Amino acid sequence: MFRKNEKHRQVGLFGYDYLLGSSYGAFKHTPGYHFHHIIFKQLNEEIFAPLYSDKKSAPNSPINSMVSALLWQQLHNWTFEELERHLQFDVETRMAIGASATFGDVPFSIRTLHLFKNRLAKYEIIHNTNLIAQLFNQMTADQIKSLNVKTNIQRGDTVQLQSNIRKYSRLELLVSGKRLYKSLSEPERQCTKPYLHRI
To answer: Which is nearest to 139 in space by CA: 75, 71, 51, 50?
Structure first.
């Protein structure tokens, strides 16, 4: 049965500010603190409701914590063993995924995290829908709206073929150019003809 996680909205008496004391001010500048506020708190758990039964049953583990943990793990390129260790003993990781400041109190087990990943994969196969991608699309749209970013114009100097193109040899440049040409549609190829004689 799907249930939203609301525990993080209730600030405990002995939270991270109490745990870290005078270091809490510096902690506010860590990636984990910003991840907590930009990703964890903005995560729409209802996107993942279809993974769970409508019938009365055992409620799910906190989805915003599990998705945040998977993203945090990818960000640091950790194994599940490393993630588990950081969830147990690392203040920044615990803050990032919305766990309480009480060590030993982890909102889910690694086994539950694996089951959640299996549900995501099975749902994508059956419904041809990637729920993580759907989440990111919604979060991106929300951030574009809140930051008032204009997305209808892209600056030419921000488009790069590859950041390491200066390291290419002549042969690598030729192969990359050929691949690019093959990926173009016929009208696009016609537009490039005046420039081909320069290559």
So the answer is: 71
Same domain, 127 and 164: no
Q: Are residues 181 and 92 in the same domain?
A: no
Kindly report, residue by residue over 60-70, the tens digit of the pLDDT: 788 999 999 99
Do 96 and 76 touch, CB atoms closer than 8 A? no
Give the HSE-up count for residue 152: Cα atoms under 13 Å, Cβ half-sphere.
1
Q: Which two tokens stand for residue 98?
A: 């919305």
**pLDDT tens figures, 32-62:** 899 988 899 889 999 999 998 887 777 778 8
Q: Is 2 contained in some domain? A: no
Reading the block at residue 45, the tokens are 């758990």
HEC assignment per residue over 13-62: CCCHHHHHHHHHHHHCCCHHHHHHHHHHCCCCHHHHHHHCCCCCCCCCCC
What's the length of the chain? 199
Q: How many domains does the chain have?
A: 2
Domain coverage including residue 179: 160-196
**Nearest to residue 42, comparing CAs of 142, 131, 147?**
142
Residues 6+ apart with CB under 8 A from 66: 107, 108, 112, 113, 116
Integer Cα distance of 162 and 26 in angstroms: 36
Same domain as 74, residue 130: yes
Residue 128 is encoded by which pair of tokens?
């041809």
Both 92 and 183 in one domain: the answer is no
What pTM was computed for the model? 0.68
